[in-house]
Each structure stands twice: as structure tokens, then as C-alpha cells.
Design a protein that fits this description.
The chain is built from twelve helices and eight strands. The model has no long low-confidence stretch (mean pLDDT 96). The radius of gyration is 20 Å and the shape is globular. The two termini are 14 Å apart. The strands form two sheets. It has a four-stranded parallel beta sheet, with helices on both faces. The protein has a four-stranded parallel beta sheet with strand order 6-5-7-8, sandwiched between helices. The protein has 302 residues and is an alpha/beta fold. It folds into two domains: 159 residues, Rossmann fold; 132 residues, 3-Layer(aba) Sandwich (Rossmann fold), CATH 3.40.50.1400.
């Protein structure tokens, strides 16, 4: 029997016309108002009109499919499902279940686990598979995988080599409402440990953790916000540049190309600091091998 592999990611609008329905879905059916929509569209225009995330994710999934086929011919059937775009997680799960696999391995394309993040993907997949008689084997948070840490560390060293003077390395991940910490969610601790591992492997002696892309809601979100942190570092003195490693993200998308490369780069420049960012993982062959290792390990243990 075959084993299904359900790869899951956030999803993105495929065209400018898809921005409004996409964000309506994210907002649980509440359309953005005219000002919010105009701002969102401006952000997409700043990075070329649409996010490259769909293309980058498709390349990752295709590369993983080929890598698994090379390791075990005919063993794995790979499908992709998105949280907020077509094909949805449920659609991909149903397509895999139709082949009556031994199990379905659920792999979320985010290294860290959270009740408000990757767990929502896995819960949706399990709910879709259960009535169809298929069992989900979730891949646990994988931020500490040695090959991933080494790959990110190499990119930190490369980015640091591209700036002059004393650099501070800031590791970022998507912020979540602060109540996740109060509820005992280990996501903040995972991000901190991820940063520590990569910094140690890179030999970085000046580093910290900051958060990005917080939602615009009244409740407090995990901080410090990376923009505020860059301003604080500049005011404190002692550094000439900030090097950002978005350790919570595995592909180029709006939160990287706009929130960091446009908005944060502008903050750094206004603060008198040079700015550099580590290259995104995308479908780097070493990263694809990390993903394949995760799937094979889950299959062996499932």
C-alpha cells in the first residue's frame, strides 16, 4: 500500500483580483473595508503585484515529490492543501484518502508548532480524513533538525559577510496574540530555541529574537515588534547593521518581501543602520532533503 503525504501551507492570492476574497476568507467572512483593501493592494504592488508564495510552495512540493520518489519508488503519494486558498486542505486530504493509503503523513511548511498555527492545519486534515477511514500521522515541529539549523546558519554567515561593521542578527517569526503564551503554548519558546541553535551554529555573538507581521487587533501580540527593536538598537548604539533571519518562514512571501525588505529596511535606513536579510529557503535542495527526511522518519515511526 502507498503512504499519502499531505503538505500544507498558508496559501496566497493568485492574482490581484483574488486579494479581496482571500482576505475575506482570512477574516472569517468579514470583507476588508476600502481603506484596508487599498493598503493590502499597495503592499502587493510593492512586491510586483502578487506574492510569489504559490509558485514557491508549488516548487517545494514538486521537489519533495521527486525526492521521495527517488528514495522509495511508488511508496509516497504527495498532495498539497492550503489553509486559505485552493486547493484547500480538505480537498487535498480527500484526494489522498481516495487511494486508501496505509496512513497520511501531515507536514506543515512551518518549522514551529502552535495551537494557533500549525495545529489548526493538522486538525483540519485529521477531521477531513477521519470519516474517510484514513489516519493522519502528524510531523512534529522540526525547527531543531540539524540539517535545517546548519543551512540557516550558513545563510546567516553569508548575510553578515555582506554588511560592514558590527552587525546584530535578529531572528524573526510571525507574531501571535500574547494569550498563546498565557495558555501554555510553547511556540514562543520554540522560536527562541530555534534562534539559539542557529546563532550558535553560525558563530553569531550578537543576536536576539523579535516578532513581525502582528495582526491589527486590540489585544496584545507577542513582542518586541522587530521595527521597534531596530529603532531601540539604533538608539542604544554599538552596532552598524541589522541582519534579519526570518527563522519562522520557509519561502518568499508578503511577510518577507514587504514586511522585512520594504518596511523594515526603511526603518533601518531611517535609523542609520545597514540592513540585510538571509535568503529564503524556497526549494533549495538541502531544504528539500530536510523535508524528505521528516516524511521518511514519520513513515518509519507511523
Amino acid at each position: 500500500m502507498t503512504v499519502g503525504v499531505l503538505v500544507m501551507a498558508h496559501g496566497t492570492p493568485s492574482s490581484p483580483a483574488g486579494i479581496e476574497p482571500f482576505y475575506t476568507r482570512i477574516r472569517r467572512g468579514r470583507p476588508p473595508d476600502a481603506a484596508q483593501l487599498a493598503e493590502l493592494e499597495a503592499r502587493y504592488r510593492a512586491i510586483g503585484g502578487v506574492s510569489p508564495l504559490a509558485e514557491r510552495t508549488a516548487a517545494q512540493v514538486d521537489a519533495l515529490r521527486r525526492a521521495l520518489e527517488a528514495r522509495a519508488h511508488g511508496r509516497f503519494t504527495v498532495a498539497f492543501g492550503a489553509k486559505h486558498a485552493e486547493p484547500l486542505i480538505e480537498e487535498a486530504a480527500e484526494s489522498l484518502a481516495a487511494a486508501s493509503p496505509e496512513r497520511v503523513i501531515g507536514l506543515v511548511l512551518t518549522p514551529h508548532g502552535s495551537s494557533m498555527g500549525s495545529q489548526e492545519y493538522l486538525d483540519r486534515a485529521a477531521a477531513a480524513l477521519e470519516p474517510l477511514g484514513a489516519r493522519l500521522v502528524p510531523v512534529a515541529p522540526w525547527y531543531a533538525a540539524t540539517a535545517l539549523v546548519d543551512l540557516l546558519a550558513a545563510r546567516v554567515r553569508e548575510a553578515c559577510a555582506g554588511v560592514s561593521g558590527r552587525a546584530m542578527v535578529l531572528f524573526t517569526a510571525h507574531s501571535l496574540p500574547a494569550r498563546v503564551r498565557e495558555a501554555g503554548d510553547t511556540y514562543p519558546d520554540q522560536v527562541a530555541e530555534s534562534a539559539r541553535l542557529v546563532a550558535a551554529a553560525a558563530g553569531a555573538d550578537r543576536w536576539g529574537v523579535a516578532w513581525q507581521s502582528a495582526g491589527r487587533t486590540p489585544e496584545p501580540w507577542l513582542g518586541p515588534d522587530v521595527r521597534d527593536e531596530v529603532r531601540r538598537l539604533a538608539a542604544a548604539g554599538g552596532i552598524d547593521a541589522v541582519v534579519v533571519c526570518p527563522v519562522g518562514f520557509v519561502a518568499d512571501h508578503l511577510e518577507v518581501l514587504y514586511d522585512l525588505d520594504v518596511e523594515l529596511a526603511g526603518v533601518a535606513a531611517a535609523s542609520g543602520l545597514a540592513y540585510a536579510r538571509t535568503a529564503s529557503l524556497n526549494d533549495d535542495p538541502t531544504f528539500v532533503r530536510v523535508l524528505a527526511d521528516l516524511v521518511v522518519a514519520a513513515d518509519s515511526g507511523g
